[in-house]
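From the methods appendix. Each design record in this collection lists the tokenized structure first, followed by the designed amino acid sequence. Records were kept in a plain field format so they could be parsed without special tools. The example shown here is representative of the layout used throughout.

RECORD:
FOLD TOKENS (319 positions):
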């Protein structure tokens, strides 16, 4: 079943598939949480003639590359069926292993599909290795590159792909998606998730899953009032906890950026500079957090301080 907001991408995909020659590489671009990976899987299974995407089994002619285990220790945990820590990038060894598979014919038909999710996280050597396959694709092989930030990709990779754009949904569509996939979510939590997700149903569902709705009002209070005595930042840290996982932490960053962006739309000119500066710093920290060994508790406090610094009374607050 097609996800909400996928009608236009499917129209373009079918038009290309019905044409004389299907392009061998596609860049599925749009903000995170729009269901691009879901689209890629469904498109891939249709191409290899398998029908609907199965819940558990895997098709031998659909190759999915994403973040693997961080190191040999985590690989052992994966092999034992235990929780394991993911690497922060897609590595060159994964690309080369995939390329070795492409030297043989597809297993069950005449087509094979390689999905990379997200292609933004290819390390430099991996991107260069992938480029060779895009330049000389094996017969019957198609590439679907999922990208949240296409500008991070090598220009030579982008130039060899046909762009398939996914656009942000309306608030009404996001709310419908949340109610469909998280029927137990309460009204206030849904409203907060929709407002914070800015058109991303996946983002809204992440907010609900990590119970980030409780942070929304607190963050709004920080940007409205500041936090002279650190009370609000203390509550923020208490709700988040000492060791939020990586996905939860990124969700908190997204929520903070959304609150600052909404505040900017309402602010008068004298206060806009402080809000813009806080937003820029929030973006910088969000980019660094996955690659640096920051203390999560300190990061949450810093997020709170940036929100407080954007308040009209921030010059009186201890930030």
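DESIGN:
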């Amino acid at each position: 079943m097609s996800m909400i907001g996928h009608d236009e991408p499917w129209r373009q995909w079918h038009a290309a598939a019905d044409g004389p020659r299907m392009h061998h590489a596609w860049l599925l671009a749009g903000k995170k949480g729009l269901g691009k990976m879901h689209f890629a899987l469904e498109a891939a299974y249709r191409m290899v003639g398998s029908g609907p995407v199965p819940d558990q089994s895997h098709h031998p002619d659909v190759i999915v590359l994403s973040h693997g285990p961080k190191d040999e220790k985590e690989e052992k945990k994966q092999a034992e069926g235990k929780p394991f820590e993911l690497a922060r990038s897609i590595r060159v060894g994964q690309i080369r292993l995939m390329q070795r598979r492409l030297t043989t014919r597809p297993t069950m038909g005449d087509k094979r599909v390689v999905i990379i999710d997200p292609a933004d996280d290819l390390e430099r050597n991996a991107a260069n290795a992938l480029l060779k396959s895009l330049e000389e694709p094996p017969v019957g092989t198609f590439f679907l590159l999922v990208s949240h930030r296409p500008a991070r990709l090598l220009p030579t990779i982008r130039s060899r792909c046909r762009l398939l754009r996914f656009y942000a949904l309306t608030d009404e569509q996001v709310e419908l998606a949340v109610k469909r996939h998280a029927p137990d979510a309460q009204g206030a939590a849904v409203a907060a998730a929709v407002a914070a997700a800015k058109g991303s149903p996946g983002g809204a569902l992440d907010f609900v899953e990590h119970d980030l709705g409780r942070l929304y009002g607190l963050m709004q209070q920080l940007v409205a009032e500041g936090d002279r005595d650190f009370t609000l930042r203390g509550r923020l840290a208490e709700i988040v906890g000492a060791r939020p996982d990586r996905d939860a932490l990124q969700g908190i960053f997204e929520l903070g950026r959304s609150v600052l962006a909404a505040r900017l739309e309402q602010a008068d000119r004298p206060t806009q500079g402080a809000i813009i500066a806080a937003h820029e710093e929030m973006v910088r920290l969000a980019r660094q957090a996955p690659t640096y060994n920051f203390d999560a508790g300190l990061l949450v406090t810093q997020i709170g301080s940036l929100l407080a610094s954007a308040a009209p009374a921030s010059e009186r607050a201890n930030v």
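APPENDIX NOTE: The chain has two domains: 7-165, 210-316.
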